[in-house]
Amino acid sequence: MTISAVVREFRELPIDIIREPALPSRSSMDETKLDELTESIRAIGLVQPIAVAYLDPDYEVLAGHRRRIACGRAGLRTIPCVIYPSMHDYLEAIKYAENRFREELNPADEAIWFSELLEHRCSGDIEQLAAIVGEKVSYLDGRLRLFHGSQAVFNALRAGEIKIGVAHELNKIPDAKWCAFYLEHAVRSGATLATVSGWVQEYRMCHAGPARPVDPADAVVSYTGGAPVYEPNRCYVCGKKDHRMTVEVRVHAACREAILDVLLQKGDAGEVPPEIASDPRRI
Question: Least buried of 29, 79, 246, 275, by fewest C-beta within 10 Å?
Answer without folding.
Answer: 275
